[in-house]
């Protein structure tokens, strides 16, 4: 033992060695600071730190961003739905709020705020989740959100093979049974969809439609939802297009709400005019989520993108003939081909389980290319009020299924054009059913006389012109 201690260097020797090493390190540092630019030094330091962290740390980190390859990341959406169910005592912060203005005493709902940590356990693994957010202006100014999942390096494969599939399965169940729906509108300034709670009361039970037509729509929706394997097998995008056409006030918007409530799908209300170009339209449409409804209301109003191209060319030729010196120019913005490419082109495959609903008051004005199967698969005519629709409205608004005056009303409806919206307005005027029905009969008689006089005047005018 004494001999070993005798062979050890003295303290003065150790101090001398330390001083030499420190001097050499300071010399190297001074040379590096003088020769190597600061950005390069920072880069080298970061790489050395990352290498040391990977070698010394036993943790592994997954990053799940909100966007993935130009579309919404479905894994992010699944985690966003799943994590609120894992809120527990270890959660360090919560985002709470209420979306029930008619029930201020309702308990607030819970959500995940930025930088909140949630601990989950799965098959003996400890998993730590954190929601992060950064601002980015690379392409479109918007908030960039992502989830950070920390686990042990040895658990990485099990997380990929078992944990993420379990999250996807539970998220699908949560989204199918969600209590509230959202309706989204696109904000052009911020280049993102803004949402609000959708609480339209319309259902298939309350719709004033022919029973056969309602049943047809419900069966078609059920078939669409259940045939994922069929769409994949035949090589088609898992989507369905509906065209709702008819006069204003015939219940097109109510049918859209009933479909959303029936399927529990969120609604993306698109105004085609809000897109600056076809590229902008693609960004807008690929920002929608799966299991949703893309709604384009009154597509024939306010834009020429959907107009029949042959008729537009004829109108343009007439204008040029009237004003031969006028230089013609095409309207900027979205083109019909840009819209069709998303409905049934290559971009239509960017998303699954989507319903596309287009409404119009004038089907004849739309380009035939927009109406063909594969784009608008189901055409539903929303017409004037029928006796069956009146009976449904009477049961809904007055709580009655039959009265002696129904026969008179139904006979008048056969010869009078009146929309379900007009009928509903008349049935809401009073609380006494008999008084309401009597007033409604007078309304229908006046409407019929008005239509008869208008028709006679039109025929008379046509005779003079002839």
In short:
By secondary structure, this protein is of the alpha/beta class.
Notes on the protein architecture:
- Pfam families: AAA (PF00004), AAA_assoc (PF14363), AAA_lid_At3g28540 (PF25568).
- One of its GO terms (molecular function) is ATP hydrolysis activity.
- Its cofactor is Mg(2+).
- This protein is an alpha/beta fold and 466 residues long.
- The chain has three domains: 113 residues, no CATH class; 171 residues, P-loop containing nucleotide triphosphate hydrolases (Rossmann fold); 75 residues, no CATH class.
- Helices cover 45% and strands 19% of the residues.
- The chain has 16 helices and 15 strands.
- The strands form four sheets. The chain has a seven-stranded mixed beta sheet, covered by helices on one side. It has a four-stranded antiparallel beta sheet with strand order 1-8-7-6, covered by helices on one side.
- A hairpin with a 2-residue loop joins strand 2 and strand 3.
- The protein starts with a helix and ends with a helix.
- The C terminus is likely disordered.
């Amino acid at each position: 033992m004494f001999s070993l201690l005798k062979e050890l260097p003295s303290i003065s020797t150790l101090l001398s060695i330390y001083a030499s090493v420190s001097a050499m390190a300071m010399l190297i540092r001074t040379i590096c600071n003088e020769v190597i630019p600061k950005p390069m030094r920072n880069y080298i330091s970061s790489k050395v730190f990352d290498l040391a962290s990977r070698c010394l740390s036993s943790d592994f980190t997954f990053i799940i961003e909100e966007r993935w390859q130009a579309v919404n990341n479905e894994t992010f959406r699944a985690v966003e739905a799943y994590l609120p169910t894992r809120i527990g005592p270890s959660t360090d912060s919560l985002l709470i709020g209420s979306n029930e203005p008619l029930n201020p005493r309702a308990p607030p709902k819970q959500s995940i705020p930025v930088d909140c940590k949630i601990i989950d356990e799965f098959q003996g693994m400890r998993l730590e989740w954190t929601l992060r957010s950064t601002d980015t202006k690379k392409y479109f100014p918007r908030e960039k959100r992502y989830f950070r999942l920390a686990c042990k390096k040895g658990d990485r494969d099990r997380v990929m093979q078992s944990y993420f599939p379990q999250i996807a399965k539970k998220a699908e169940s949560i989204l199918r049974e969600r209590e509230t729906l959202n309706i989204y509108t696109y904000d052009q300034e911020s280049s993102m969809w803004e949402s609000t709670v959708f609480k339209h009361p319309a259902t298939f039970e309350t719709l004033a439609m022919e029973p056969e037509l309602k049943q047809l729509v419900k069966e078609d929706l059920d078939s669409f939802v259940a045939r994922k394997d069929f769409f994949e097998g035949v090589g088609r995008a898992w989507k369905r297009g509906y065209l709702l056409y008819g006069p204003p006030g015939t219940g097109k918007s109510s049918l859209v709400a009933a479909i959303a409530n029936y399927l529990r799908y969120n609604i993306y209300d698109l105004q085609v005019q809000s897109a600056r170009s076809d590229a902008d339209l693609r960004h807008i449409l690929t920002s929608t989520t799966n299991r949703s409804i893309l709604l384009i209301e009154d597509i024939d109003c306010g834009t020429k993108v959907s107009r029949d191209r042959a008729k537009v060319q004829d109108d343009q030729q007439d204008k040029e003939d009237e004003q031969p010196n006028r230089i013609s120019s095409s309207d900027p913005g979205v083109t019909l081909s840009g819209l069709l490419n998303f409905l049934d082109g290559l971009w239509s495959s960017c998303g699954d389980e989507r319903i596309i609903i287009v409404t119009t008051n004038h089907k004849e004005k739309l380009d035939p290319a927009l109406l063909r199967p594969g784009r608008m698969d189901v055409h539903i005519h929303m017409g004037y009020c029928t006796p069956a629709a009146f009976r449904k409205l009477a049961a809904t608004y007055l709580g009655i299924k039959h009265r002696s005056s129904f026969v008179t009303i139904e006979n008048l409806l056969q010869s009078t054009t009146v929309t379900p919206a007009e009928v509903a307005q008349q049935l809401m005027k009073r609380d006494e059913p008999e008084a309401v029905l009597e007033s409604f009969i007078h309304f229908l008689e006046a409407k019929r006389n008005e239509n008869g006089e208008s028709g006679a005047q039109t025929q008379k005018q046509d005779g003079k012109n002839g």
